[in-house]
Amino acid sequence: MVEVKIKIPEDIKDIIDETSETIYVEALKEVARKRMSYTQKRLRDLKKKIVLYEIKHGKSYEKFSKTVPDTLNGHDDWIEWSYIIKVANELSTKIEKLKLLIGK
């Protein structure tokens, strides 16, 4: 478990003191929902780029990475495609965590 500390202005302290933990949980879920939408869009955009590379090279990243052409373009594509795959995997993991937080 992680403890979260929040600093708030003195003027708001009285309002916060009257609320229960439920409001914090709901606020966190709302932030997660908004983050989920943004993260899913980014993942969709990256998946489109992955498909473009698959079409361009006529193979999956796994096959391409084993036979990278010894050209400047081949290496550039490999580096960019590798990065896109890495970020897409990270976003997929983040989406799963957000789903847990939201309760999906």
In short:
With 104 residues, the protein is an all-alpha fold. It has helices at 10-17, 21-57, 61-66, 72-102.
What do these coordinates show?
By secondary structure, the protein is mostly helical. The chain has one domain (24-102). The protein has 4 helices and no strands. α2 packs antiparallel against α4. The mean pLDDT is 87.
Notable traits:
mainly alpha, 104 residues, 4 helices
For the largest beta-sheet, the strand count, sense and barrel status come to: none
Quick one: overall form? Answer: elongated
Radius of gyration over C-alpha positions, nearest whole angstrom: 21 Å
In N-to-C order, the SSE pattern is HHHH
For the termini, the CA-CA separation is: 20 Å
Q: Name the helicity range.
A: over 70%
Tally the helices.
4
In terms of topology, how is this protein built?
Layout: H1 10-17, H2 21-57, H3 61-66, H4 72-102
Helix pairs in contact: 2-4
